[in-house]
Amino acid sequence: TCYSSLTINHVAGVLAPVTKTVTYGTVTNIPGETSKCWITSNLGADHQASAVDDATEASAGWYWQFNRKQGYRHDGSTVTPSWTITSISENSDWLPANDPCTIEMGAGWRLPTSTEWVNVDAAGNWTDWNGPWSSGLKLHAAGYIYTNGSMMSRGSSGMNRSSTQSNNTFGRFLHFTSG
């Protein structure tokens, strides 16, 4: 069942970087993956972004390293908890036991697969960042945390994780920019 919203009480610890309660909007009927129920903001975001180039921390939500369950909050200068990156050399997709969506939101929720992102992108005919933003998903340029812990491209690039492995050190993701 896909409810119009879902309220989650995140508790700082193994996965959530801070304690807070968030109400996530949900949507179905997304072209390319019409049977799926999606949240309309990033996990950990206080609210849905207000524009495709919304560079606020409250809209960005939390950031993840592939197949690791610790989320990171980046307020523009400080990473919470302290940034540590774990070396990855493995041969698996994002394991359900590490999936932040399943852990924080419950059974039935998970990160999208690479195939699901490809299907949504193709069906939406996305050619620049206006496509993901104008879709029911409201994907925006939340940026990413670079390997040294610095914030990169918030407000100018979107990198949405998938649960699908790319190689022994990275997972696949949907990436978009203004161009």
Low-confidence stretches: none
Q: What can be said about the biggest beta sheet?
A: 3 strands, antiparallel
Q: Can you list the strand order of the major beta sheet?
A: 1-2-3
Rg (C-alpha, Å) = 15 Å
Anisotropy-based shape: globular
Structural class: alpha+beta
Strand % is 15-25%
Number of helices: 4
- Number of E strands: 9
- What order do the SSEs take from the amino end to the carboxyl end, as H and E? EEEHEEHHHEEEE
| Mean pLDDT, all residues | 94
How far apart the termini lie comes to 36 Å
Query: Helix amount, in percent?
Result: 10-25%
Provide a compact summary of the structure.
15% of the residues lie in helices and 22% in strands.
Helix and strand arrangement:
Elements: E1 5-10, E2 20-27, E3 38-39, H1 57-60, E4 73-74, E5 79-80, H2 100-105, H3 114-124, H4 130-134, E6 144-145, E7 151-152, E8 157-165, E9 171-177
Antiparallel strand pairs: 1-2, 2-3, 4-5, 6-7, 8-9
Describe what you observe in this structure.
The model has no long low-confidence stretch (mean pLDDT 94). Strands 1-2-3 form a 3-stranded antiparallel beta sheet, with no helix packed on it. It is globular and about 35 Å long. The longest helix has 11 residues, at 114-124. It has helices at 57-60, 100-105, 114-124, 130-134; strands at 5-10, 20-27, 38-39, 73-74, 79-80, 144-145, 151-152, 157-165, 171-177. The chain has 179 residues and is α+β, with helices and mostly antiparallel strands.
